[in-house]
Amino acid sequence: MFNSVLINNTDGTYAAEYTELNDDVLPAGDVTINVEYSSINYKDALAITGKGPIVRSFPMIPGIDLAGIVTHSDSPTFQQGDAVLLTGWGVGERYWGGLAQKARVKSEWLTALPSGSNSHQVMAIGTAGFTAMLCVDAIVEHGVKPSDGPVLVTGASGGVGSCAVIILASLGYQVIASTGRPEENARLFKEMGASEIIDRNQLNLPGKPLQKERWVAAIDTVGSHTLCNVCAGTKYAGIVAACGMAQGMDLMGSVAPFILRGVTLKGIDSVMVDAAKRPKIWQKACEYLPVTKLEKMSTVLPLSQAIEAAHLLLDGKVSGRVVIDCNG
Question: What is the DSSP string of 265-301?
Answer without folding.
Answer: EEE---SS--TTTHHHHHHHHHHHS-HHHHHHTEEEE
